[in-house]
Amino acid sequence: MADNQEKVVVIADSITVGELAETLNLPVTTLIGELFKNGIIATINQKIDFETATIIVDELHLEDVRLEKREAATGPTRKEHVLTDNAVERPPIVAVMGHVDHGKTSLLDAILETKTVDDEAGGITQHISAYQVERNNRKITLLDTPGHEAFAALRQHGATLTDVVIIVVAADDGVKPQTVEAIRFAREANAKIVVAINKIDKETANPNLVKTQLATEHNLNPEEWGGDVIMVEVSAKTGQGLDKLLENVLLVADLEELKADEDTPAEGLVIEAHMETGRGSVVGLLVEHGTLHPGHYLVAGTAYGKVRTLLDFKGTPIKEAGPSTPVTVTGFKDLPQFGDTFSLVKNEKEARQATVAARLEREKEAASTNVTSADILKMMNQQHEAEEFTIIVKADVQGSLTSVIDSLRLIDTGGQITLRIVGSGVGNITENDVHLAADSGTVIYGFNVELPPAVKRQATRDKVEVRMYKVIYELLDDAKRSMEALLSPEVKETELGKLTIKGVFRTMKEEVICGGEVTSGKITPGLQARVLRGKEQLAEVEVTKVQRGQVEAKEVFEGDMCGLSLKTDKKLVIEEGDKLEFFSRELVKRTLS
After folding, report:
1. pLDDT digits (tens, 9 = 90+) for 554-582
2. Buried b (16+ CB within 10 A) or exposed e, 289-314
3. Residues contacting 40, CB < 8 A, separation 6+
4. Is 282 inside a domain boundary?
5. In terms of residue numbers, what domain contains 435?
6. Considering its fold, how many domains does the chain have in total?
């Protein structure tokens, strides 16, 4: 920039602080400092929109720099797959949904003869797991979806890629909120519903009550009652009814005539993604069409990679994966996001090119949720009054991270507390996380991850709070309590009585002695009172003494005549006919709804 020629910098609708600093050849601390001076606490990865970047350049007096907005390219949209004449029958994709603790994972354990429920925190599924089972020489793909309401996004994706939904309802507990939600998701996805009435081995089991609730309240009428919904009574504990349940799933699937193409480029959905030491990115995929092989180049959202290893749900290497098959792959350069669709490309060059438009489009969408010019202008002109709760979130897998962050943002603070997520990622808590949180009062939340001893010592030394959780609603409750603690207490006033002045006996610099009639409520020493003349408030005073006749009284009531000693902080002239309104004030701790 020393040649005094104007430098034109072309950027997209949004750009991170780090990228802008690199583009302008400035230290990133300079940009962060300028944002901070204008009331915005930003990190190196914080996105700002084009207008904000322009304002910052002006504030830095970079007169030889001009920003221009790059028009984002329109990325290729995924076309709906049209089946060819060579389409073949495929396994049904079945999501298992229902209320927390109604036995979804236990039911899958019994079907698969495994024991995964013991590994789940609190017995609650935290992310989607995919399996395959064979019955009558036919495969069924099963998706175990979380039951807690915080994982609504995961369940919604699970239902979208599902042909049949098994809704698990405990026979001893009946229809619950997440049961209703699962029914709604299944209907929105146009998936067929099969109801598994679980825990019929319990003495308190009442399957007929469950059927009645579903029929009368949710229009799911059992077949045996003349309806069209198959309901099977099962027990994950004893194994009763499991074969019948799977047979009926296949029966429902047959009616749908499910087909897919095998001889086309593979495409499908990302259902999990996380990092593992020694393996890099580990991504769970569900193939919808085509056949996937090791060595294929994949693009999923803004991530791409070459399939290095291809494993089935048991972790066994396989040579190919056809339609409706859940697989785990390694080889992605970056972690794709949960819910991204994946497709095949010819080579790495084409893969890189395919991610550019997706990244630009995603940045454009992200700009609306990050720092905007309206934000910075507002902060430059006024003090931001809302308290801030800044956090860093680390989770074990991408799907869980998305759900935790989405759920945190749903906590309603009425605009009084600003939740600022200054960092997030998949994997264990690192020294960089602690560095980012230090000196800013930032809390680090770890969800199903580890806190290495060295990082723990660093956090203790730097006085950084690290809070580790394995159950999401415990993490959300903690965040809510922390935000409530930032709320200033509310001043609550209670009206206690009124009095009309009948006479003034003495007026001094800081005290007035007067008398009058109590027209409502009661009056006691120590109360606050407003002095009103017509509709005008003259002052606020404190009642220091109450007398009934010549005797000091502890309280006087409506209809009583009394004398009052009023303490004031200024020369106050009270006249006959003025009114006093008595009230009490207390500080009430506020809570979030």
Report:
1. 999 999 999 999 998 777 888 999 999 99
2. bbbbebebbbbbbbbbbbbeebbbbe
3. 371, 375, 376, 379
4. no
5. 374-486
6. 5
